[in-house]
């Protein structure tokens, strides 16, 4: 073995001095080593690939749900913001319309009431004014006729008496 210490491994294999068992162990060792390295190399890149894939998927999954969450949140906020201002606008509009509607009908009611009262008052005054002047007129007429009737009667009486 000392003779071949300086000789390369390849030269040692070419010589017949190394036994077949040693060659087989040597080949088996390198075969195991090769497949061991290959296995761990494949395993490493397999783990690396799935690790990268997992974190890539995880990253895009998180990113997707993060974007989706903020997208949903944004549209949720936007929807409730629009809804709030829509409700607020229609609430204000409703109460504004209601207020002016009530105000309008309130004014209309009091306007009608006022003119109705004025109308009643006017016709009441007119009626009593007409009645008053009618009564006064007939009262005066009545007393005028009565007066002249009495006067005429007295005149006739005096005429009859004198005759």
UniProtKB/TrEMBL annotation:
Q: Which stretches are transmembrane? A: 21-42, 48-71, 78-102, 108-129, 136-158
**Key words, A-Z:** Membrane, Transmembrane, Transmembrane helix
Q: What is this protein called?
A: TLC domain-containing protein
